[in-house]
Amino acid sequence: MKIAIIGAGNMGSAIALGLVNGDIIKPHDIIISNPSTEKLNALKARYADFNITSDNKEATKNSEVVILAVKPWIVEKVLNEINLKKQQMLVSIAAGVTFGQLGKYSGVDSTMYRVIPNTAIS
């Protein structure tokens, strides 16, 4: 399963690290996108097999699951630029952003989840 994580802040990083601490997802199956190369390089230093990019569209292109780990006010911009496909599962951690808004911003009726994690998820 290929997973794209948009956002390498505290939550996005914690989710990435939590996923690879299990037995199912391998670091090479995760691509993390963030505008800050410093945050991406910090994750890459922990797991060299993580894929990193600053291009959200590139990150989501071949992913089966897209995890939006961005601030609520950035969700619309990100979803407008990535061109989510119907077969991609969308997971949002953005508080207060409804399923209706996620569908409207993405322009597609895909499977969606809203998750409210904390950094202990790692």
Describe the 3D structure.
The chain is of the alpha/beta class and 122 residues long. 34% of the residues lie in helices and 18% in strands. The protein is built from 5 helices and 6 strands, in the order βαβαβαβαβαβ. The chain has helices spanning 10-20, 37-46, 56-60, 75-82, 99-106, and strands spanning 3-6, 30-33, 51-53, 65-68, 89-92, 112-114. α5 links the parallel β5 and β6 (112-114). α4 (75-82) packs across α5. The longest helix is centred in the N-terminal third of the chain and has 11 residues, at 10-20. The chain starts with a strand and ends in an 8-residue tail after the last strand.
Please tally the helical runs, counting DSSP H or I stretches of 4 or more residues.
5
Number of strands: 6
Describe the biggest sheet?
6 strands, parallel
Helix fraction bin: 25-40%
| Amino- and carboxy-terminal Cα gap | 19 Å
Structural class: alpha/beta
Over the alpha carbons, how many angstroms does the gyration radius reach? 13 Å
| Secondary-structure element order, N to C | EHEHEHEHEHE
Mean pLDDT: 93
Strand order in the sheet with the most strands: 3-2-1-4-5-6
Query: What oligomeric state do the depicted chains represent?
Result: single chain
Beta-strand portion reads 15-25%
Shape: globular
